[in-house]
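Below is how a single chain appears once it has passed through the pipeline. First comes the sequence as given, then the structure the pipeline wrote out for it. We keep one example in the README because the format questions we get most often are answered faster by looking than by reading.
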Amino acid sequence: MLRVDGGTPLFIQKFFQSPKQVGSLFPSSLSLAKKMTTQLCWDHIDIAAELGAGTGVITKEIVRNLKPDSEFYIFEKEEEMRKKLTLHFNKHTVCEDARHILISSGKEEATMDAIFSGLPFANFTRNLQREIVEEVYRALRPGGVFVAFQYSTQMKRTFQEVFRTVEIAFVPKNFPPAFVYTCEK
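Resulting structure:
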């Protein structure tokens, strides 16, 4: 069964099979998950998504904060991790491709209140980075928030070109240490 408080063996196995897709040797820390989720006003989040959920460390924190009637869409490209997320988070919708947030969620317009991301943007082509960031922007309602972690500040400029505001926080209690971007539409 999936350990959503780490899932380290599966994560490491998948990293060695596909390092560019997984993006890190170890799953996110609880400190990183809390940093990504504690800064939001959860009373106003009715529809949310997570891109690149991995083994579910951040997913667990998101679900813990969501209102019981909120819609939540979980995206994970790696098949075995996606299957385990589907089993563990069976009250929520698990999807494959983060490039199609609106289509996968069945939404025709920008309705998401919050989108979280653990996608390894640094491993993607510039075109794919831009395609995903623009899809996130289209999926968010006005005032919606995109919260993403990265291991560098490489995406800062791209996020600033697309979003109204971008704030960055550093999380040293993660391996490797991470930057959390909070971007508002």
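The chain is about 35% helix and 25% strand.

See the next section for the split statistics.
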